[in-house]
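Readers outside the structure-tokenisation community will struggle with the description of the input data as it stands. I therefore recommend that a typical entry be quoted early in the introduction. An entry of this sort, consisting of the sequence and the corresponding backbone structure tokens, reads as follows:
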Amino acid sequence: MTEQMEKANLRFMKPVESLPIRMRERHSFYEGIVDEFVESGLKYAMVNDMGKKPITVAYGLRRALEKRGIKSIKVCQIKNQIYLKKLG
């Protein structure tokens, strides 16, 4: 480590020379839900209670759709329940 790193007075972190290598490809929990909806061929589906706040689930699903570039599916939150809707 460089002298600058050794002299740094850090309370919430520690210096590292490089980042570790990822061992696996990340596949989110929400991508699995998207996969299941696409494969089902349904036009509408209600997402089961995941033990998480509905806004968290909706955000995760929107991110998964955005990551894959899927614009034909919409995530809707109605009365604390999450729905997936196939557009078109």
Remarks:
- The domain at 3-86 is CATH 3.30.1370 (Ribosomal Protein S8; Chain: A, domain 1).
